[in-house]
Amino acid sequence: MKKTSKIILFVLVVVALLCGVYRLANKAPSASLESNAQMAEIIESSGCMACHTANPELPFYAGLPVAGKLVKEDIRLGYRSFDMAPMFEALQKGEKVSEVDLAKVEKVIADGTMPLAKYYLVHWGSSVSDTEKQMALAWVKSQRTAFYPNPLADAQWTNEAIRPVQDSVAVDMRKVILGNLLFHDVRLSADNTVSCSSCHGLNTGGVDNKAFSEGVGGQLGGVNAPTVYNALYNFVQFWDGRAATLADQAAGPPLNPVEMACKSFDEICEKLNADAAFKKAFEEVYPDGINQNNITNAIQEFERTLLTPNSRFDKYLKGDQTAMNAEEVAGYDLFKKYNCATCHVGENMGGQSYELMGIKHDYFADRGTELTIEDNGRFKETKDERDRHRFKVPGLRNVALTAPYFHDATQATLEDAVIAMAKYEVGVDLTQQEVKQIVSFLQTLTGEYQGKLLTNANDLQK
């Protein structure tokens, strides 16, 4: 045996022995501890923060020739896919943990896929005992019960990461009526040709089914328009998250030179104030009259009503086992198996986190077209390099009606989108049968608006 090989073997044996000693000393947290404290101990003792944080404390063996290479690559990939620092901070403070983080932790613990087996020898304490697994899964369930209750679901689904869409939420109907009028009012654009509904048609799945929407003068935007349906559930608005609320989002397009192209809201207010009947109706709801805050507040209140409950999937979650057929149920099982339900969570099945486009493969290199400013995603706002190519996860409700897909509209069909997401986000090449089953499941997500099942007017015209 060569000298180098002997050294490497010796290092591995020593590390293995040290790991064994560590695991003997590293017992599961006491059952008497509160669940948050138990989970904090598990995260620390299992080495999670050694890979899933921006500035980890490297162990001494990170400098060794074999172990060090594995450690550094482990850290790069771990942090790339999941930054656990916000979750750990919330955990220590007893605050609400993101439901995406809960779903990610639950999935890898339940599957036993984290920590990775190949890293056991170089990450001391990285294995998780059966007792710790049960504690971690119980903690996830307790967090969901406390912060993400699911009263609409049948008992067997009450702790799913996905919840049925509500039938309605509390709103001020006077504002809703005004918001509806404003949503469809072309006077919000400079040349009186474009309204909110021009790009977010309520009869076309809340989008316009175009790769890029047309603004004043036929100008094209640079990103695919997200659906307005169920946008209430999103934690931020726009692909890059630059709007914190629906009202903030409503304030953007009117002043965007490519979309509605108004110089200011004063220009819009002047036109609306010239309409005596509208002005009178507006002031009955907003005594201080027509201004930017009131316009966007009214639109926000209207958009809060754009919920689409009672999809066949929702009916299934509520206990109707006949609402989905065997192929669709199989598709849902695959949706969970391949980690889709770790990011596409909550009522809207998405919209709760920013995720990297191309975790497993370089999506933009494979796309083969020039990068645009929109491809930067969240980086546009934060200038943090980790946010480059990260986007707010789109909600999947009514997804069968909202083609084309992705921020760059490169995927023409649901089949295309499913294949691409599996490849670039999960690192899996799906079989034709799996694609068919997942697409069948996604087609069950079409819900009802105002008591009628959504359909796509464009499809009806074909």
UniProtKB/TrEMBL annotation:
<dbReference type="Pfam" id="PF14376">
    <property type="entry name" value="Haem_bd"/>
</dbReference>
<keyword id="KW-0575">Peroxidase</keyword>
<dbReference type="GO" id="GO:0009055">
    <property type="term" value="F:electron transfer activity"/>
</dbReference>
<dbReference type="GO" id="GO:0030313">
    <property type="term" value="C:cell envelope"/>
</dbReference>
<keyword id="KW-0479">Metal-binding</keyword>
<dbReference type="InterPro" id="IPR025992">
    <property type="entry name" value="Haem-bd"/>
</dbReference>
<dbReference type="GO" id="GO:0046872">
    <property type="term" value="F:metal ion binding"/>
</dbReference>
<dbReference type="GO" id="GO:0020037">
    <property type="term" value="F:heme binding"/>
</dbReference>
<dbReference type="InterPro" id="IPR009056">
    <property type="entry name" value="Cyt_c-like_dom"/>
</dbReference>
<keyword id="KW-0560">Oxidoreductase</keyword>
<keyword id="KW-0349">Heme</keyword>
<dbReference type="GO" id="GO:0004130">
    <property type="term" value="F:cytochrome-c peroxidase activity"/>
</dbReference>
<dbReference type="Pfam" id="PF03150">
    <property type="entry name" value="CCP_MauG"/>
</dbReference>
<dbReference type="InterPro" id="IPR051395">
    <property type="entry name" value="Cytochrome_c_Peroxidase/MauG"/>
</dbReference>
<feature type="domain" description="Cytochrome c">
    <location>
        <begin position="326"/>
        <end position="446"/>
    </location>
</feature>
<dbReference type="InterPro" id="IPR004852">
    <property type="entry name" value="Di-haem_cyt_c_peroxidsae"/>
</dbReference>
<feature type="domain" description="Cytochrome c">
    <location>
        <begin position="34"/>
        <end position="144"/>
    </location>
</feature>
<protein>
    <submittedName>
        <fullName>Di-heme cytochrome C peroxidase</fullName>
    </submittedName>
</protein>
<keyword id="KW-0408">Iron</keyword>
<dbReference type="InterPro" id="IPR036909">
    <property type="entry name" value="Cyt_c-like_dom_sf"/>
</dbReference>
